Hints:
By secondary structure, the chain is α/β, with parallel strands linked by helices. The chain is 38% helix and 17% strand. The chain has one domain: Vaccinia Virus protein VP39 (Rossmann fold, 3-Layer(aba) Sandwich), CATH 3.40.50. The longest helix is centred in the C-terminal third of the chain and has 18 residues, at 238-255.
Amino acid sequence: MKGLSTSWHKLSADRRLSKPQRILWIAFNLFNNALPRIDIDERVRELKFCLAEHELDELWDRIADTSSPSRRLCDLFWMSLPWPAISTELTAASVVEVGCGSGVYGRLLERTLGECFRSYVGIDIKSNEQWKDFDAPRFRFEVGTASDARRFLLGANLILTQSALEHFEDDLLYFRQVSTHVLGSKYPILQVHLMPSASCITTFPWHGIREYTPRTVSKITRLFGIETKPYLFWLGGSRCNQIHRKFITWPLFRYGVDLRYAESAKYLRSLRSAILDDFRGGASNPAFYALVLASNFKSDPFALGVSK
């Protein structure tokens, strides 16, 4: 059905692709990522995520050493959101995460939100052994898909995805359900979606269905009305992409070795330097995106961007 996806193809690398299909996947996504700054939603405010060096150092050891550059940037972003201001708006956070995996971001939000955290519902296409380690009733997990998200959204005011949208065959269908939920609600609702940028086609190719650009993100934001303020944060840039290719992409392709493990100390030093370079520089190609949608908010917690 037309208009259910931000991409015009549904060739998924989550399924085993033949060599011809792998070539097609690259070609299809290059085409889908073309003209990234055409037909952009004028309401979207693009911001660069940036931390001072001392802020980066405060958070550095709270993230696993083996995290990829994009995953580390995502975790830094999550931990640096203006949570006190967000908590004031939400009062009590009822969280829904589609594509939750082990539920690790439920734990992060429980720690970060403190008394504001009320409940978490994690949905994934298959169950995870770690779900049993979470305490009910504040944590609940369900096997389900993004196409069936509406049945989990009742009462939700914090809706998130982490590196999941690229795996949704019909990502716009998912957002249409969220939009219906937002339009029928008068209370504040925050969405945070972390997604691969177009540059990810060379850092981790054959991952999911698609990458995203400001043009394709605009297909999402246009589903939401004037009650929603959309922000698109740039996470990292070309230096982080270089580190990913140097330590992960090319060694795995050529030798089947991931240098994050074989040269861990060197990897961490290089990554920290790259992140700081991207924070300080004027990167033209983000390593990843964070789409934030704030609906029915009385204030603007993101007026000055994101920092600790």
